[in-house]
Fold this sequence. Notes:
The protein is of the alpha+beta class. The chain has twelve helices and 39 strands. The strands form nine sheets. It has an eight-stranded mixed β-sheet, with helices on both faces. Helix 2 packs across helix 12 and helix 6 crosses helix 7. The longest helix is centred in the first third of the chain and has 17 residues.
Amino acid sequence: MKTIKMALGLYVLLFFCISACKTSPEQTKVFTQADFPAPPKAPKKPQIFTNHGYQRADDYFWIKDKSNPETIAYLKAENAYADTVMASTKGLQKTLFEEMKGRIKEEDQSVPSLDNGYYYYSRQEKGKQYSINCRKKGSLDAPEEVILDQNKMAEGKPAFIFGGFEISDDNNIMAYVSNTTGSYAEYELKFKDLRTGKELPDKIARMAGGITWAADNKTVFYNVPNAALRSHRIYKHVLGNPSDALVYEEKDELFNAYVGRSKTKKMIAIYAMSFTSSEAYLLPADRPNDAFKSFLPRQKDIQYGIDDYPDRYFVTWKDPQNKNQKVYEAPKQGYEDRSKWEEIIAHDPKAKIEGIEVFEKYMVVTKRVNGLLEMNVREIASGTTKTVNFPEPVYTAYSNGTPEFTSTKFRYSYTSLNRPTTIYDYDMVTNQATKLKEREVPSGFNADDYEVKRLWAVAKDGVKVPLSIVYKKGMELNGSNPCLLYSYGSYGYSTDANFNANVFSLVNRGFVYAIAHIRGGSDLGEQWYEDGKLQKKMNTFTDFIACAEHLIKEKYTSSSKLAINGGSAGGLLMGAVTNLRPDLFRVVVAEVPFVDVINTMLDSSLPLTTQEYEQWGNPNVKKDYDYIMTYSPYDNLKKANYPAILATGGLNDSQVGFHEPTKWVAKLRDLKTDNNILLLKINMDSGHGGATGRFDYLKEEAFNFAFILSQIGISN
């Protein structure tokens, strides 16, 4: 959160590194339920719901109450059963953990970033789970100043999430956010005087994570969630003042409100955003006591974002005729008259504008073209544009964010399925990229040992769906190879072919690792996203099935060796495709899966529900209810043979309640007619992201991979 940019969307970037391991897979017995004591059985307590004239019985609705001792007892019984079943894989789990840990450089440091006279960076120390945040004044040769040690903050806590920090303009006061619940929706805001190292008495106990300083070095704006965790209010806090002022409240349940500051540092913006519309409210950063002013009133199905510039605004614009966005220049005076706007980047139906980053002399435009990210550098004065070149056919590249408005360099990362993440500075004057750091893999890694390909499956309706795959060179395509197929496919989030360290513990055991770029994401543009939501959501699931069938047809794997994995909305994907084609997969790992769709979307008190009507539909409307009921995983379970399944969850999960995977597993236990293993593993201390330490989460990943391997018949 070092710098918050005024932008249309929120993007989460994940950084991974990979390495080879040296194991020779050994085939072994595949255990079934018959090899273990009977699994826990949740009592049925039928509750009847009536919607649109239909009656629906839910035998396990009671499980959602985590204050009920019976619920906790059932969760503990399921965890104990999972441990019993997985006991024979303890050695394998340890081996996997050590492999994954061996790909992490325990003593490491990020590339320093210059911001307002200081170089900021984080470093990690051997054996420690969390980062240490540091800075140096004026020069990298200056003495190091430790501003936060996250390890000390996490001491004695079962979970810890650091949400970021912002520094006042005079460089003296740090505002920072964290929590110890494992929830990514609620944080505590604190302040620290960096001159003395002392904590200030000011404290906000519950906020949503966004913090923005005004230019007066004493005023901070922050956003607060309501009971359903919708970020709906923006408050103003003045240091030393016990009473905070409400400056904005978003009453439309489809919208969230966020606050940020421009790269110029001159403007603060509140964005009110739904999944289809937006409105911005602006305030000069040096006048924090003034009222925010709407830039343009919100309109249905129109989204815009603003980048501040000394004499104009740059506006990204999306409407039903320009789904992939276009870019305008608007004058500072009289911008309300849109006839004065000048279009500088036209809409391109084949290239989605992911975002722009505006500097004093240049604009960096990130586009998604044919499923891959492209970066263009545009000189603002002349409009001359050059493209940053990337060498491989399947890759991911993204801006790291460059804080200084006057910079003539911008920083980006480049990675692919077999290339460690590498950070570059790109000189916009000379158009030369300088390599700053390549993620080191201590246990060793040779990219040339692996084959990376882009494949195309044909969907049910004839649309071509891309897959990205990686496997060891020399592998024979004879249908006997195990495969892990991953996807997400919702919210317009693209599933980029990032460098994933952990999957090489499978790849080096003979697996093909595949990513399905299915509709519901925006991998091939905004229309790709729209064709996988609301009344077209079924495309997401049938696309994934088509990708699985393509891998089998082309003899990369077989249904008896095919494992699939997805989390959250990707867990919904796992549940839906397993109902549709239980015969197609051998193993399913559904992490924090959103599987109880109809119940969740009917409960407006739950986090995310009302604002997501634009994703799934509003089941209070009969048409939407009927459609959701065609795919809701929990509601479509039936007596049938299912694959081996592992479902995970977090007791403190604010995004997908722990009860969703728990109810799903309970109902599956009652209905499934096979003898395959079915496990539920609930983290009793954390939330949506699982374990929070950089090593602790590897234990959960090792557990998941050991489950996959054991069900494929690989024991080492």
